[in-house]
Design a protein that fits this description.
The structure holds two protein chains of two kinds. Chain A is built from six helices and three strands; from the N terminus they run αββαααααβ. Chain A is an alpha+beta fold. Chain A has a three-stranded antiparallel beta sheet. In chain A, strand 1 and strand 2 form a beta hairpin. In chain A, helix 3 packs parallel to helix 5. Chain B is mainly β. Chain B has one domain. The chains are: A alpha+beta, B mainly beta.
Chain lengths: ~150, ~120
């Protein structure tokens, strides 16, 4: 495995370019199933193989709180443009993660905060981490997919 | 980084010269190619995940946000058994969305789905 250069203050785009050139993609079997609306079917989050390689390598991705700060800015009613993009580039990158830690990071980055902050507070879980083999094998009735009631505690 | 060249312009021996800002501003900043039937990300750059929202509807989540949701966002897909119409939705500065419909304007899954994003990074 190549050694990650010491990326201090390096633009995230440049770090991702280095990763694309030097790391093999890692296809994860993990999938995150979540429901963020009672009127819609379940959504499936699929990790990107190149991103997963970055997470396992370490020293490339910014801490997840950086994305939360940018999301806060974007949620402001008078938001026009990001002005704190430097957080992505100047914050020290996170060290190597296990695949499971990477999935937790990804949930906090790419799933709605309303889902992962209280995923287990209703009558049944709003979010489930599973292996792709556990999903239905065909996409027939895809728009009816829901998290099973049998998973209720 | 090793091998860094700082230049404002590059020049060809006969074809003329070009400001490097054209290269920087004109390059794709993120892209993804995936199979919409199996939800397999085949190749990508600067994306962290793919969200399968429902039949024929996906979001690519970006690693590096753009300055705003006004980034250029090109999409395409391959569907062998029917004509498709494709559109890109604007969800935020770090999400690119792709929707595929058939002749009857019903959302359908498709192979070879591609998203390419250009613009100014945050």
């Amino acid at each position: 495995m190549p050694q990650t250069p010491e990326f201090k203050g390096t633009h995230l785009f440049d770090r991702l370019c280095w990763a694309k050139e030097n790391l093999e993609g890692v296809q994860s079997d993990y999938r995150v199933v979540y429901e963020d609306s009672v009127d819609e079917c379940a959504k499936i989050l699929v990790p990107d193989p190149n991103w997963m390689a970055c997470a396992l390598q370490g020293g490339i991705l910014p801490p997840v709180w950086v994305y939360h700060e940018l999301a806060k800015d974007e949620a402001q009613p008078d938001f026009k443009k990001h002005t704190r993009g430097y957080l992505l580039h100047q914050t020290e990158p996170v060290p190597a993660m296990t695949e499971e830690e990477a999935i937790e990071y990804l949930i906090m980055k790419d799933c709605p905060q309303s889902v992962w902050t209280n995923w287990d507070s209703g009558n049944k879980p709003k979010m489930v981490i599973c292996k792709k083999q556990q999903l239905p094998q065909t996409r027939e009735w895809r728009n009816s997919w829901r998290i099973s009631d049998e998973l209720a505690a | 980084m090793a091998g860094k060249i700082i230049a404002d312009q590059i020049e060809h021996s006969t074809a003329g010269s070009l400001d490097t800002q054209y290269v920087v501003n004109g390059s794709a900043k993120a892209w993804m190619q995936f199979d919409g039937h199996s939800n397999t990300v085949n190749e990508s750059f600067a994306t962290s995940s793919l969200t399968d929202n429902a039949t024929g509807r996906w979001n690519a989540n970006l690693s590096n946000a753009f300055t705003s949701d006004n980034f250029a966002h090109n999409v395409s897909s391959v569907a062998s058994s029917y004509n498709t119409s494709i559109d890109a939705g604007y969800v935020g500065a770090s999400i690119a969305s792709l929707r595929v419909r058939n002749d009857a304007t019903t959302y359908v899954d498709a192979d070879g789905c591609v998203l390419v994003c250009q613009g100014d990074l945050a």
